[in-house]
Amino acid sequence: MEARFFNLASIKFIRRKKMIELRSLRDLNANLWVFDCDGVIYKNVKEAEKEVVDKMIQFIALRYGCNFEKAIFTRKELLRKHDVSHSITALIYEGFNEQEILNKTYFAINLKELGIMPSLEIQDLFASLSGQKAVLTNNHEEFAKAVLNQLGVLGHFSAIYGISKLGRIQKPDLRAFQAIQDAVGIYEGIVFIDDKVKNIIAAANFGWTTILLGSSDEYDGFWLPKLR
What we know:
There is one protein chain. The protein contains 9 helices and 8 strands. It has an 8-stranded mixed sheet with strand order 1-2-8-7-6-3-4-5, sandwiched between helices. The longest helix is centred in the N-terminal third of the chain and has 20 residues.
């Protein structure tokens, strides 16, 4: 780890096996902070995913003129047909309007009911971190923007990249990391925070300093139990 990126003397950490638990992101310095969104900036990922999938199935049922059960099957077929992992991508490939899909699905979700509320703790954290901030998500960037706006931190981010901008390119594909660097114009002193070990390992191999949110026996490096 290069000293020009971090003030190592200021880092307060607890060493457990091969992992280093940081006290806070505030112990580090970076030119660019890159955050995952789902599972990192907000926690109710399974509930949010279920809401999105249900809304997608309802959209398919409406547009294909079928019942909910048939729409479940149709959604799976569309994902297989286009070899994608997100319903919205498959539907766009089928010719549906992206904004209409967003309005009927992601934007129809009540974030408050998912417990995603304005957070002074998160607001203070992002305000205290020097350097630019970006989001790199394997979800839709418009949903990430909605979450950030709901939390009251959208203004802290200079770039938000997801499946609309990146298409089939997703983490841990190194081209996703390159896209963020190119978008912001920063190529050194980058810290990446994600909750998936495979993404963390890929980013580390790409040359970024990485922090895993949550612990894992498969990971050797910085980690945090929660965003703080």
